[in-house]
Design brief:
CATH superfamily of the largest domain: NAD(P)-binding Rossmann-like Domain
Order of helices and strands: EHEHEHEHEHEEHEHHHHH
CATH topology of the largest domain: Rossmann fold
Distance between the termini: 40 Å
Strand content: 5-15%
Number of helices: 11
Helix content: 40-55%
Number of domains: 2
Largest sheet: 8 strands, mixed
Structural class: alpha/beta
Radius of gyration: 21 Å
CATH architecture of the largest domain: 3-Layer(aba) Sandwich
Strand order of the largest sheet: 3-2-1-4-5-6-7-8
CATH class of the largest domain: Alpha Beta
C-alpha cells in the first residue's frame, strides 16, 4: 500500500482527480492497487487503469470498496448531487473535498457522520510540485488531518490552515498556476514583439521562471532580496521593474479579489 499503508478512492477523474491519483502513485506514497478512481468517462479512467489503478464508472461501487479515504474531486456545482446517494455509506469515513467555495459546514450537512477534511490543491500536483491547504471539519481527528496532509505533501507542499484562510489560499495558490502561466505568456509575447523567435523566447522565459522558483525554494531567500541581487542601481532591470511593479501588484490584487468574488458566488450556489 505504500509508506502510509492506506487506500484512497477518488470520485472524479478530471484534471485534478487524475493528477491526485497519478501523483500519489508516482511519488511512491501509494501502490497503484491502493488507488481506486471513479468517473463515467472511459477516456479519463483508461490511462489510470493502464497504470495499474482500479477504476469504476459507479460511485456506489467505489464507496463499497471501503477505502480508508474518499476524495471528492468534482466541481462544486455537482457535488451535492454526487454526495446525496453516497452519504449513508460515508458515515465514519475520512472524506476529503477539493470543491472550491463549498464550506465545511455544507459538506458536513451533505455527509452527516463523515469525518470531513477540506483541501485546496493546485494543478502542479501532477508533477509533484503542487501546493495544498488542508482544513479539518468538526468531526475530523488530528490523525485524519495529518493523514490528509501527508497524502498531499507527497504531491508538493501541504499546510494546515483555518477555514477562513482557505478561500484566500485558493484564490492565490489554486488559481496561481494560471497567473504564472499568463505571466510567462505575456513576457514571451513582449520578447517576440521586440524581435525574438517565439519558441526560443518561450523556452528561455520558462527556464528563467523555473530557475527562480528552484532558487527561492532551495535557499529560502526572500523574493525581495533576490530581486535586489538581480537589480543593479540605474540598470536595465531597475528600469523594467519601475514599469512592471505597480501594474503587477495592482493586477495581482485584482485577480485575487476576482477569484474570491467567484468563490463566494459558488458558495451561494450561483
Amino acid at each position: 500500500m505504500g509508506p502510509l499503508g492506506v487506500s484512497v478512492g477518488i470520485i472524479g477523474a478530471g484534471s485534478m482527480g487524475s493528477a491526485i491519483a497519478r501523483g500519489l502513485v508516482e511519488s511512491g506514497m501509494l501502490e497503484p492497487s491502493s488507488v481506486l478512481v471513479c468517473d463515467p468517462s472511459v477516456a479519463c479512467t483508461e490511462p489510470l487503469a493502464q497504470a495499474g489503478m482500479g477504476v469504476t464508472a459507479n460511485a456506489q461501487d467505489l464507496v463499497a470498496e471501503q477505502t480508508d479515504v474518499v476524495v471528492f474531486a468534482v466541481k462544486p456545482q455537482v457535488l451535492p448531487d454526487v454526495c446525496a446517494p453516497l452519504a449513508p455509506s460515508l458515515e465514519g469515513r475520512v472524506v476529503v473535498s477539493i470543491a472550491a467555495g463549498v464550506t465545511l459546514s455544507t459538506l458536513e450537512q451533505l455527509m452527516p457522520g463523515a469525518r470531513v477534511v477540506r483541501v485546496m490543491p493546485n494543478l502542479p500536483i501532477q508533477v509533484l510540485s503542487g501546493a495544498t491547504a488542508v482544513c479539518a471539519g468538526t468531526r475530523a481527528s488530528a490523525e485524519d488531518v495529518e493523514l490528509t496532509r501527508s497524502l498531499f505533501a507527497a504531491l508538493g507542499a501541504a499546510e494546515v490552515m483555518r477555514e477562513d484562510q482557505l478561500d484566500t489560499e485558493g484564490a492565490v495558490v489554486s488559481c496561481g498556476p494560471a497567473y504564472v502561466a499568463l505571466f510567462i505568456d505575456a513576457l514571451t509575447r513582449a520578447g517576440v514583439l521586440r524581435g525574438l523567435p517565439a519558441a526560443a523566447c518561450r523556452e528561455l522565459v520558462e527556464a528563467t521562471v523555473l530557475g527562480v522558483a528552484r532558487t527561492l525554494l532551495e535557499t529560502g531567500e526572500h523574493p525581495r532580496s533576490y530581486m535586489e541581487r538581480v537589480t543593479s542601481p540605474g540598470g536595465t532591470t531597475a528600469a523594467g521593474l519601475k514599469e512592471l511593479e505597480p501594474l503587477l501588484l495592482e493586477g495581482a490584487y485584482a485577480a485575487v479579489d476576482g477569484a474570491l468574488r467567484r468563490t463566494s458566488e459558488l458558495a451561494e450556489g450561483r
